[in-house]
From TrEMBL:
Gene Ontology molecular function, alphabetical: DNA-binding transcription factor activity; transcription cis-regulatory region binding
Cross-referenced PROSITE patterns: HTH_TETR_1, HTH_TETR_2
Record-given protein name: HTH tetR-type domain-containing protein
Keyword Transcription regulation: yes
Organism, scientific name: Oceanibaculum pacificum
Residue ranges: DNA binding: 33-52
Keywords: DNA-binding, Repressor, Transcription, Transcription regulation
Domain of life: Bacteria
Xref: Pfam families: TetR_C_2, TetR_N
Domain HTH tetR-type span(s) in chain numbering: 10-70
InterPro entries to which the protein is assigned, alphabetical: DNA-bd_HTH_TetR-type_CS (IPR023772), Homeodomain-like_sf (IPR009057), HTH-type_TetR-like_transc_reg (IPR050109), HTH_TetR (IPR001647), Tet_transcr_reg_TetR-rel_C_sf (IPR036271), Tscrpt_reg_MAATS_C (IPR013572)
Coiled coil: none
Length: 211
């Protein structure tokens, strides 16, 4: 009986997350109330509060459901767990774009995070966390590029932090532009070659490298 209750509670939690994701995507985070989410999920508002403290808590749980496996790989690379960090990071970035392009849930979540949430007023705490997450990602990327510099594989043209900011900006830009206008092409096809071209300029001994 206890196991069944836990399973039912988990099912209810997923129903609420599914409803929130659908409404956030369709009408935006700011215009969606917890009451609307409860109705769409077929539960009471009390059930929503049983699982989530508030809209920000629900929003962040939805975001976590879309977490990419490549994010864990980047954490590992930052701890110096690769013989060729540039190659491994390049492959991870290309695969991340392919994964998002082919996964409807992750596409919706990315679109909500980038284009359907006003990070003001009640979502102010989410804005702070988003900023911290970006800072953390740039720091992790910076450590990976520092590892590559120590191994002698990073171009002298690229200080590690500059390479981290450049890669983060390119990935964010590719994804944001495609989500705004998917008709421009298949991100899974043109995204990875963009990543490869960027990384060619990062490698020690590239034609563009300063002697």
């Amino acid at each position: 009986m206890v196991r069944r209750t836990k399973e039912e509670a988990e099912q209810t939690r997923h129903q609420i997350l599914d409803a929130a994701e659908s409404l956030f995507y369709r009408q935006g985070v700011g215009r969606t109330s917890l009451e609307e989410i409860a109705r769409k999920a077929g539960v009471t508002r009390g059930a929503v509060y049983w699982h989530f403290r508030n809209k920000v808590d629900l929003f962040e749980a939805m975001q976590e459901r879309g977490r990419l496996p490549q994010e864990d790989l980047i954490e590992q690379l930052a701890r110096n767990e690769a013989d060729d960090p540039l190659l491994t990071l390049r492959e991870a970035c290309g695969e991340a774009l392919r994964l998002i392009a082919g996964d409807e849930r992750r596409r919706r979540i990315c679109s909500i995070l980038m284009h359907r949430c006003e990070y003001v007023e009640e979502m102010g705490d989410a804005a702070i966390r988003q900023h911290r997450n970006k800072q953390h990602m740039v720091e992790q990327l910076g450590r990976i590029f520092e590892n590559a510099a120590r191994l002698g594989t990073l171009s002298r043209n690229w200080p590690p932090r500059l390479a981290a900011l450049g890669l983060h900006g390119m990935m964010h830009g590719l994804l944001s532009d495609w989500l705004s206008d998917p008709a421009q092409g298949d991100l899974a096809e043109y995204g990875p070659p963009c990543v490869e071209a960027f990384f060619k300029g990062l490698v020690r001994g590239s034609p563009e490298e300063t002697p």
